[in-house]
């Protein structure tokens, strides 16, 4: 195997090698006084810092506690654990994010002094001790105040290292991270008389191995941690080598001689992690990136398609087949051919319309997988309205979808069944019927012989049930046939709206059952139902249009809570009406007639606290002085002074 030995690079110990070094991490350090009675300041290298500042790992923060008069340091904590005894300062080497606190206590009771003995067992080094208020010394013993931290420093002779630390003292241990084999420092928070010993041994040297790395042409290589000057690395060090291919290139292969490969290092891998167990050589080579390709498909959207589409390569004009993978930045030209009477409506790429393009060509540069679609529309101008030869008139409500509503039925339809044309054709264009104008519904009122509606076919907008015309979901009853046999009818439970004039001019029904859930009765829906005597009004009703139950034979009417307004022709000419109850939510009659000519009226109950405003012709033809009025007890005076209400029979009856 070929090695690019001539391209060996080695790092520099000052971190200036081409591969760069790992930046020194920083950690946030917070500090405060627990309980008051003093202050706490912190400095790094003589520069004061604030609580919450970030400090580079390896730096030492010196905390200085200043008690108020009559107080002294009680203790320190690091991340909630006691450290540093009662010293007035604390040096903290930054290794992680930390929280430091100090507390103070009164000077009323002086703290005792204890003897601290220290020595070296054997030879090959010396031992010194110091504490807050006691300078570092090699002379044992020293006298230190209770609660202070005693710091012991071992000085091994050349070629030696600390073998062991020993501590003798009731309830005392070395602070975490100190007093261990190989560690030159031990710290103890003083609680009583103390003896500390240290011993030394011949220093154990860590083996080192030469590590080299090399990169082939069209790229580079880096190491983390960076290789030191000379390339000698401690045994068992783990190094991650990272390949840096130039633009347009990618990793080809790694060649690793010696050591233990832990991860990566395979063809195409961008890194290789190696454990150094012997001399190691790492080399990486590069190759050109293969061209990126994407699949492009195309077609005609819509049914029927009303046209075709083809494609070719712009570069040489050769045909392009849908579903073929092509190189990135390839330019394709698409051509649409429309059928007679049609034109390009739009082009889309992955479902998104190409802005402003309705031409027969579209040029596309490939940057990702794409589905190119073209759709066609009729080139015939869509009118706002049109009339068929049979006299039926329509209004276009959605030109893009070709949706219409019928505004006039055809001239003189005959028979007992009226078949609604769910689609109609005009000047070669097919339209879909979605509903009817109010004028058209009025015309159905004139078809006395009509017993049932039917549909010419399936539709997403209309339905027929039992000859009655509904919207598709049967939430709105559009029209009940005027000549349908039977004296009673139960409106389906799904209905929420009685449509405009849906029962108007019916002469056969005596009873209509309205469903719970009905919310709206539109204008004229129950007008001129001449024989209608029984109709339940569900509590879910909130909106009542004009001409409600006018000219019917109802005797008792209760308007449910939630209705706030009533409109013109409300209960007009209901000559058999005896009782009327109006809800507390009723606020006003909008206009015109209200209970006109209800000559049999005996009792009106109005639960509204404030007398509702009534139109100019309210109760016309009714002798109100003979009609009982029931109102809230607290509102009697207001009703006695309100227009129309004041004319009812006295005294008013109060509601509980």
For the biggest β-sheet, the strand order reads: 42-43-44-46-48-50
Number of strands: 59
- The CATH superfamily of the largest domain turns out to be Ribonuclease Inhibitor
**Beta-strand percentage range:** over 45%
- Tell me the count of domains: 6
InterPro entries: Bacterial_rp_domain (IPR044060), LRR_5 (IPR026906), LRR_dom_sf (IPR032675), Surface_bspA-like (IPR053139)
Domain Bacterial repeat: 40-107, 127-201, 211-289, 309-376
Protein name: Leucine rich repeat protein
Organism: Treponema socranskii subsp. socranskii VPI DR56BR1116 = ATCC 35536
Structure in a nutshell:
The protein is an all-beta fold and 656 residues long.
Written description of the protein model:
The chain is mostly beta strands and 656 residues long. It has six domains: 26-106; 113-202, no CATH class; 206-288; 293-378, no CATH class; 380-460, no CATH class; 461-655, Alpha-Beta Horseshoe (Leucine-rich repeat, LRR (right-handed beta-alpha superhelix)), CATH 3.80.10.10. It is built from two helices and 59 strands. It is elongated, with a radius of gyration of 49 Å. The N and C termini lie far apart (106 Å). 27% of the residues are buried. Mean pLDDT is 93; it is low at 1-20.
């Amino acid at each position: 195997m070929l090695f690019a030995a001539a391209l060996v690079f080695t790092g520099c110990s000052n971190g200036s090698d081409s591969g760069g070094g790992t930046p020194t991490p920083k950690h946030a350090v917070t500090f405060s006084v627990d309980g008051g009675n003093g202050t706490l300041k912190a400095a790094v290298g003589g520069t004061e810092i604030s609580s919450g500042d970030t400090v580079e790992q390896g730096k030492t923060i010196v905390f200085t506690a200043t008690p108020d008069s009559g107080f002294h340091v009680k203790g320190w904590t690091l991340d909630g654990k006691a450290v540093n005894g009662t010293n007035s300062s604390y040096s903290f080497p930054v290794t992680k994010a930390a929280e430091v606190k100090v507390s103070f206590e009164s000077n009323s009771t002086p703290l005792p002094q204890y003897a601290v003995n220290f020595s070296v067992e054997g030879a090959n080094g010396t031992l010194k001790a110091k504490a807050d208020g006691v300078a570092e010394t090699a002379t044992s013993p020293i006298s230190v105040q209770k609660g202070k931290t005693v710091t012991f420093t071992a000085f091994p002779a050349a070629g030696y290292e600390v073998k062991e630390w020993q501590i003798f003292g009731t309830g005392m241990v070395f602070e975490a991270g100190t007093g261990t084999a190989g560690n030159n420092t031990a710290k103890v928070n003083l609680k009583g008389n103390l003896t500390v010993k240290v011993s030394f041994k011949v220093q154990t040297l860590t083996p080192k191995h030469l590590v080299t790395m090399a990169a082939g042409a069209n790229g580079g290589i880096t190491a983390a941690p960076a290789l030191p000057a000379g390339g000698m690395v401690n045994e068992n060090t783990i190094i991650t080598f990272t390949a840096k291919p130039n633009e347009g290139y990618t990793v080809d292969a790694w060649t690793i001689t010696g050591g233990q490969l832990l991860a990566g290092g395979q063809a195409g891998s961008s890194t290789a992690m190696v454990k150094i167990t012997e001399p190691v050589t790492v080399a990486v080579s590069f190759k050109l990136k293969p061209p990126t390709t994407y699949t492009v498909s195309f077609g005609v959207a819509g049914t029927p398609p009303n046209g075709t589409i083809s494609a070719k390569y712009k570069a040489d004009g050769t045909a392009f087949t849908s579903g073929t993978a092509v190189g990135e930045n390839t330019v394709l030209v698409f051509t649409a051919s429309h059928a007679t009477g049609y034109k390009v409506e739009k082009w889309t790429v992955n479902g998104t319309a190409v802005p402003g393009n309705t031409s027969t060509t579209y040029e596309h540069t490939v940057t990702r997988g794409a589905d190119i679609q073209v759709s066609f529309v009729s080139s015939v101008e869509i009118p706002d309205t049109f009339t068929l030869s049979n006299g039926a008139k329509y209004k276009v409500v959605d030109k893009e979808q070709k949706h219409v509503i019928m505004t006039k039925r055809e001239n003189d339809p005959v028979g007992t069944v009226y078949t609604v044309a769910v689609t109609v054709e005009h000047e070669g264009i097919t339209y879909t019927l979605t509903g009817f104008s109010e004028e058209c519904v009025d015309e159905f009122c004139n078809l006395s012989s009509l017993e049932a509606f039917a549909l010419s076919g399936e539709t997403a907008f209309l339905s027929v049930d039992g000859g009655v015309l509904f919207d598709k979901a049967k939430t709105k009853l559009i029209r009940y046939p005027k000549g349908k046999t039977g004296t009673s009818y139960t409106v389906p439970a799904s209905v929420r709206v009685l449509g405009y004039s849906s029962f108007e001019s019916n002469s056969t029904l005596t009873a209509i059952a309205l469903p719970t859930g009905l919310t709206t009765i539109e204008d004229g829906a129950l007008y001129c139902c001449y024989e209608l005597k029984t109709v339940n009004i569900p509590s879910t009703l909130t909106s009542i249009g004009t001409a409600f139950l006018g000219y019917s034979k109802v005797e008792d009417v209760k308007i449910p809570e939630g209705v706030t307004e009533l409109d013109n022709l409300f209960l007009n000419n209901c000559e058999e009406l005896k009782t009327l109850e109006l809800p507390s939510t009723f606020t006003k009659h909008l206009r015109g007639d209200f209970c006109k000519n209800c000559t049999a009226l005996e009792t009106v109950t109005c639960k509204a606290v404030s007398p509702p405003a009534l139109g100019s012709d309210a109760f016309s033809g009714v002798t109100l002085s003979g009609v009982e009025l029931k109102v809230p007890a607290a509102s009697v005076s207001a009703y006695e002074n309100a227009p129309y209400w004041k004319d009812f029979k006295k005294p008013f009856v109060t509601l509980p």
